[in-house]
Amino acid sequence: MERPENIKSLKATMSVRLIIIFHLVGIAGLSIAETKPLFLMLVPYHLLLMTLVLFFTHDGFGARFILFFLLVFIIGFGVEWAGVHTGQLFGSYTYGPTLGFGVDGIPLIMGVNWFLLAYSVGVTLQYSGIKYIALRVLSGALLLVLLDVVIEPAAIKYNYWHWANGVVPVNNYICWFVLGAILLLVFELLRFKKQSIVGVVLLISQFIFFIALLSQPVLTPAAEPIKTVKPR
Description:
The protein is mostly helical and 232 residues long. It is 66% helix and 4% strand.
């Protein structure tokens, strides 16, 4: 019988390889004109798969972890809803079709995406050696903003979402910082035990993935008309 440590190591190794492979395949698929439409359709399923990978490798799966997922999903989706329908948080923006099924104009996968971001950054900061919770939270929030700086131009090119006048407002990054800090504080307060490096690998893969997408051809604006949602 294999020891629990060996099983955990095997799970982590398998998951790391899966994350790297799927991100590389995604980059390749989106770089080929013939396969790009298919891979754009697969974006929500890719995010779901990454979530399952994190669930699979999480050590100490229990009530606190489930509570964290639910809280992040609800908070993330709620803030996105308020952002789109008021224009007062991130700025004036609308979602395109790439992120899949939504409710009232907000893709459900966005709640899942916020979980992926908060969890991967939270685990990464656990490995950072930073002793103080406040400093980990603030550093993690800044890391999320840096990731969003990379995400924004790629998201616009691939119809994730669109900004009014095509300009990303400064308050988008401010909101990312504040929301990121709140979610990371929840992560810290629920006191997860230190996890494997899977979360770290996912975060690094996200940076590489979106940087790679920036080198790809721009989608033709006429192919996907942008609908403006007026704040309520």
